[in-house]
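Thread amino acids onto this structure.
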């Protein structure tokens, strides 16, 4: 692997990693680094609850030729301290600290700092299984036409309990692209590994589609090369009420209409349905009830009962909450 010298242009605290630090006369940190095979980009914002588990799942990969670029997006909790602690212990961890601007800016900053030809995404509240990168690298080596590769996932709750294996996942390019254009969820953002050259050719992440930055990128990457998902569960995807899908679903619905219109025009396709998608999930009780049904369908009875009880507590006079609780207690 080639050796390079990287100098932090801002201050010694901004980028941490590489070998033991050396300081220039001006006080800059000089880092001697090797070019890794994978750059893992993980945006971090107020993620102290799950952050250590997420980092451990990356550093414990069976494919260890990687750098973890953790972009702290102005966290107000202990996230930055946790990141710096890992960077001091493992030279593969690099930390970028920046004022809060949102996930798109954090992602693009992380990608700009990446030195590997492959970019892997990771979120600060999920768990990558140990063989994730090994299997993804092997697939990409065997399929040069593939520019973006995800995996199947297990949905887990805020406490790590299994909800279900995600049912909407698709596995070949045509199915994935069709699903992306028809309001489905065939790929999970923190599972993907991308060829950096293709990512740059597609234009990277775009701020105007914040909250749908993954779908926007996937649609453009599908115009550069092939997309695919591995069928194995290689990531545990955490579902919780503070995730973007729950806190910004109205903004996502509006942006989706604009994104589809732009995509149809760019591809020369006839304009499709412009009606904003509607969701049956209106309250926290609705969400817990849905998770309870999903867990029950996959046979995860303890998870089903937990979320059924939460649904009842949130909406004690809603008959559907009591119905899912009764089914969860019976186990069917």
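Threaded sequence (332 positions):
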């Amino acid at each position: 692997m080639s050796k390079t010298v990287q100098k932090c242009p801002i201050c010694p605290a901004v980028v941490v990693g590489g070998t033991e630090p050396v300081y220039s006369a001006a006080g800059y940190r000089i880092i001697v680094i090797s070019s890794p095979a994978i750059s893992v980009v993980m945006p971090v914002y107020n993620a102290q609850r799950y952050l250590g588990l997420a980092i451990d799942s990356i550093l414990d990969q069976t494919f260890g030729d990687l750098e973890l670029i953790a972009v702290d997006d102005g966290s107000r909790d202990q996230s930055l301290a946790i990141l710096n602690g890992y960077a001091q212990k493992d030279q593969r961890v690099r930390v970028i600290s920046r004022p809060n601007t949102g996930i798109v800016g954090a992602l693009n900053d992380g990608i700009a700092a990446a030195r590997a030809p492959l970019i892997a995404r990771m979120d600060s509240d999920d768990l990558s299984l140990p063989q994730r990168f090994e299997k993804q690298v092997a697939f990409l080596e065997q399929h040069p036409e593939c520019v973006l590769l995800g995996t199947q996932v297990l949905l887990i709750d805020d406490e790590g309990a299994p909800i279900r294996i995600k049912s909407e996942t698709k596995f070949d390019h045509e199915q994935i692209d069709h699903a992306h254009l028809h309001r489905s969820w065939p790929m999970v953002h923190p599972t993907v590994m991308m060829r950096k050259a293709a990512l740059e050719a597609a234009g990277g992440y775009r701020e105007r589609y914040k909250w749908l930055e993954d779908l926007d990128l996937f649609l453009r990457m599908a115009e550069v090369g092939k997309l695919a998902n591995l069928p194995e569960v290689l990531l545990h995807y955490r579902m919780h009420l503070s995730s973007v899908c729950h806190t910004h679903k109205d903004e996502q619905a509006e942006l989706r209409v604009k994104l589809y219109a732009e995509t149809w025009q760019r591809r020369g396709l006839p304009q499709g349905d412009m009606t904003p998608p509607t969701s049956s999930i209106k309250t926290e009780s609705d969400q817990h009830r849905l998770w309870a049904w999903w867990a029950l369908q996959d046979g995860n009875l303890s998870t089903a009962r937990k979320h059924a009880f939460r649904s009842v507590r949130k909406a004690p006079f809603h008959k559907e909450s009591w119905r899912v609780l009764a089914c969860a207690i019976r186990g069917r």
